[in-house]
């Protein structure tokens, strides 16, 4: 689609927004009626039941156990598979920073001698194991990242809630996408951010620091041409007449404020489909890695004898299987 009368922002301008902290702009919804008023085809209760609050227990200098909220996550299968950001789980992976693991089991309640991870869902608490992860170098580079780094790094992991046999969880059904959308052979290819045409209204669910379950909302307005991710940036990139022709007010406030500990939460469109995972942001800009990015990285469409699908895409009912080490070596 041709770009008509757009202003295309530079990476330097976007980097400035990401690297300079500022106060939140109040883009959070805090109750069900607000979500319904925005036209979402999913409910507040549904989003909450499929979301995770990820915490860590640690010993203070006196040897007493303390707790801290580290981030958010979301369920993608009835048996407790979930997605979150690598940097949320970095303490569990401290001794495995140079390793990648596919179809493994890293117990985050015992892996680190002084830390124990937990996830809360639906009023219950669960221990966590990590199933698939990349190396630290592949995943994240510190707490402050440029837009270039956010898109080229794959700051996500697949985990599982440890639960008794027979426990079933509410989960997000994941939408079919074009196979090979993300080129895993060149995950750090250079790119140009382009305006997303048209802008896409989304909701980001999770647990901000010291807060109950909340949902941020706004528009994605920039996209990586290689389908690896998006930004909701506080930069005007569309002409007024373009917006008005699509029923979007010309004075729309761009950018989605993302507070600490929202990392790892789902990015959901109006229809209720997950389109990505939020991995970075501040009060003005949210950085999102796409659905196809983490699915192409950790899942395969190739069936394996005696192995059940890990997730099933909708509406095609396409099964996806967790990659093992051999699959992943072939794609890296």
Question: What labels would you give this structure?
Answer:
332 residues, alpha+beta, Thrombin, subunit H, 6-stranded antiparallel β-barrel, 6-stranded antiparallel beta barrel, disordered N terminus
List the helices and strands and how they pair.
Blueprint: H1 11-19, E1 28-29, H2 32-37, H3 44-49, E2 51-59, E3 65-75, E4 81-84, E5 106-107, E6 115-121, E7 124-132, H4 136-139, H5 147-152, E8 157-162, E9 193-206, E10 214-224, E11 229-232, H6 240-245, E12 266-269, E13 274-281, E14 286-290, H7 291-298, E15 299-300, E16 311-313, E17 318-322, H8 325-331
Antiparallel strand pairs: 1-10, 2-3, 2-6, 3-4, 4-8, 5-7, 6-7, 7-8, 9-10, 9-12, 10-11, 11-14, 12-13, 13-14, 15-17, 16-17
How does this structure look, described?
This protein has a domain of 138 residues: Trypsin-like serine proteases (Thrombin, subunit H, Beta Barrel), CATH 2.40.10. 16% of the residues lie in helices and 32% in strands. It starts with 10 loop residues before the first helix and ends with a helix. By secondary structure, it is α+β, with helices and mostly antiparallel strands. The N terminus is likely disordered. Strand 10 and strand 11 form a beta hairpin.
């Amino acid at each position: 689609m041709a770009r008509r009368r757009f202003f295309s922002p530079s990476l330097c301008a976007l980097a400035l927004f990401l690297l300079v902290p500022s106060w939140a702009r109040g883009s959070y919804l805090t109750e069900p009626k607000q979500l319904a008023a925005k036209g979402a085809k999913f409910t507040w209760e549904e989003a909450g039941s499929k979301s995770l609050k990820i915490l860590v227990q640690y010993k203070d200098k006196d040897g007493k156990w303390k707790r801290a909220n580290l981030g958010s996550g979301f369920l993608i299968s009835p048996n407790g598979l979930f997605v979150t950001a690598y940097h949320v789980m970095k303490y569990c992976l401290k001794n495995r920073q140079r390793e990648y693991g596919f179809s493994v089991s890293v117990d985050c309640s015992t892996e680190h001698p002084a830390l124990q991870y937990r996830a809360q869902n639906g009023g219950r608490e669960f221990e966590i194991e990590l199933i698939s992860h990349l190396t630290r170098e592949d995943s994240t580079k510190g707490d402050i990242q440029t837009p270039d780094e956010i898109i080229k790094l794959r700051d996500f992991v697949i985990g599982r809630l440890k639960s008794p046999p027979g426990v079933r969880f509410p989960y997000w059904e994941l939408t079919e996408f074009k196979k090979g959308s993300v080129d895993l052979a060149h995950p750090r290819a250079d790119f140009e951010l382009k305006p997303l045409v048209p802008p896409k209204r989304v909701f980001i669910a999770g647990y901000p620091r010291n807060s109950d379950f909340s949902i941020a909302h706004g528009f994605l307005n920039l996209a990586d041409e290689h389908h690896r991710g998006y930004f909701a940036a506080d930069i005007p990139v569309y002409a007024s007449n373009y917006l008005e022709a699509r029923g979007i007010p010309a004075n729309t406030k761009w950018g989605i404020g993302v507070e600490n500990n929202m990392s790892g939460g789902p990015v959901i469109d109006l229809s209720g489909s997950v389109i990505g995972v939020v991995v970075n942001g501040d009060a003005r800009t949210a950085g999102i890695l796409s659905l196809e990015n983490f699915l192409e990285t950790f899942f395969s469409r190739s069936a394996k004898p005696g192995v059940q699908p890990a997730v099933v895409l909708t509406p095609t009912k396409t099964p996806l299987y967790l990659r093992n080490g051999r699959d992943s070596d072939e794609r890296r």
